């Protein structure tokens, strides 16, 4: 089964080799028929400490790295904005 890839914005890079990424999803409400935005934060492994707050990055599922980290950074700002 392929690994999930999500796009989000870095909201924190204070931890060593870890970034907190806010991923937003949009869907139509089943009853109100309005577009609703929901967001969730993921902790992702950034081995090079290359990502900074405000960067748009892609994260991919991986094997558990720590208690909360199950995602890893795939691409940084320049690559994600080109896609």
From TrEMBL:
- What SUPFAM superfamilies is this protein classified in? Nucleic acid-binding proteins (SSF50249)
Instruction: Please give the superkingdom of this protein's source.
Output: Bacteria
Give one GO biological process term: translation
The Gene Ontology terms for molecular function here are:
rRNA binding; structural constituent of ribosome
Its job? One of the primary rRNA binding proteins, it binds specifically to the 5'-end of 16S ribosomal RNA.
* PANTHER family per UniProt: 40S RIBOSOMAL PROTEIN S11 FAMILY MEMBER (PTHR10744), SMALL RIBOSOMAL SUBUNIT PROTEIN US17M (PTHR10744:SF1)
Query: Would you identify the family this protein belongs to, as annotated?
Result: Belongs to the universal ribosomal protein uS17 family.
Q: What is this protein called?
A: Small ribosomal subunit protein uS17
């Amino acid at each position: 089964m392929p690994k999930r890839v999500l796009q989000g914005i870095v909201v924190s890079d204070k931890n060593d080799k870890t970034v907190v990424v806010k991923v937003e999803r949009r869907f139509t409400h089943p009853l109100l028929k309005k577009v609703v935005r929901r967001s969730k934060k993921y902790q992702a492994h950034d081995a090079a400490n290359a990502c900074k707050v405000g960067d748009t990055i892609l994260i991919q599922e991986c094997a558990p790295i720590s208690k909360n980290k199950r995602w890893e950074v795939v691409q940084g700002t320049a690559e994600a904005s080109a896609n």
